[in-house]
Every structure is written in structure tokens, then in C-alpha cells.
Amino acid sequence: MKLTLKIWRQQNQSDPGELKSYLLEELNPHMSFLEMLDSLNEKLILEDEDPVAFDHDCREGICGQCGMMINGIAHGPLENTTTCQLHLRSFKDEDTVYLEPFRSGAFPVRKDLSVDRSAMDHIISAGGYISTNTGQAPDALALPIGHPTAEAAFDSAACIGCGACIATCKNGSAALFTSAKITHLSLLPQGDIERSARVTNMVNAMDEAGFGHCSNTEACEVECPQGISVLNIARMNYEFIRAKLRSK
Length: 248
Fold this sequence. Notes:
By secondary structure, this protein is of the alpha+beta class. It has eight helices and seven strands.
């Protein structure tokens, strides 16, 4: 299998950057997308060229580190799939594939395909936690939670924080990411203590980080590798209004 890669190369934030072409031959269609980039970097190192910088960690679709734009689509052409779960069999022989970093004002490029997503960490640190006593684990039956509520909380907690929703949104909004974190804890009794402070602080942190506003295009849900629902955004708005009314 042969592919032509058009990869965004950028040394740092001040560098204007450009697309560079690389031809890879004798690729195995069963290789993962990141294994293909590993092969490219081995080739570049042997040729005394600078390898392509890209984010990755677990390579199991869990950590959310491997995000990039592939042919203009966050994580590539498959639905509910992270970049590390994508395989070359999703492309045709002799295809040209364009690779770019996630584009957002809140995601400055570190180098090549690697971006700084620490703005998302600031949102989490503003309220993505609960108060609990340390020591022995509580009895599982002490806080009964209905199955629908537990499932809804788990669905929201499935967010891996990859940033695809932000890179896909035309406004660069972090509403889906933030709302998933807020909804997850607001549905559970363990999150009730900080409920009002959480939504207020996390929404404020989202605005302070320079993310755009949600205009309900729902592109974020379409590109989310975990299929996080935009109904979480409605829940976040409800929680925010509730917190404001209770503070009066």
C-alpha cells in the first residue's frame, strides 16, 4: 500500500508553518494510523531529518491524546473512533492524506501536529471534583442510584477530553466537553455538595480560557469519538441558571 502524506510542519508558535509531502510505500493496510506515523519518523530519523511531533499515549482510545485533523475531519473518517484506533484499511492505495493539528484559538501549536490543550485542564481544575471523606470505601448500597441516572452519568463520564469537539466547532466552543464533566457529577449524589459552585466556576473558566460560544450546530457530537450527546449542553445551561437563581 502506498500513501502520500501532506503533513503540517511547524517548529513553534511563532513559526508560520507549512504543509510538507512525504511518500510512504509498502505499508500494511492493517497498520494503525499512529504506527504509520512511527514508520515515517523512523524513515526521517535515518535520513537525518526532524521527525514529526504528534501527541499519543495509551493508543487504546482512552487517553484522548492522539487528536489531529485527518483530511479535515477530527480523528479521521470513521465515526466514534480516535486517531489511534484508525487503521490504514480505511484509506485507498495511493491516496493523499492531509494531516493538520487541531485548530482552535485555545489550542496553540507546540510543534507540528502537537497542540497545547492545557486550557481544558484549567476547566477541570475549576470544579471537576467532589468532596469526600478519606478512609474506608462507603457501602455501595448507602446511596442508591437508579439505573437510568447511573447510565446517564456514565455516558457523560465517557468523555476522554481529546478536544475534537472544540477543534470541530466553528466557534471553538468547549461547551460539549465542559457540559459532559458538569453533567456527570451533577447527576450523582456525591457531586451535590459543589453542585452550584461547580457549574459556575467551570463555565467561568471556559470563558476566561478564550473558548467560543455554542451556537447549536451539533458538529461537536458528530465528531466526538465517544458520541457524547449535545443534551449535556442543555443540562449545563439548566445547572447554570439554577445556580444563579439559588445565589440570589
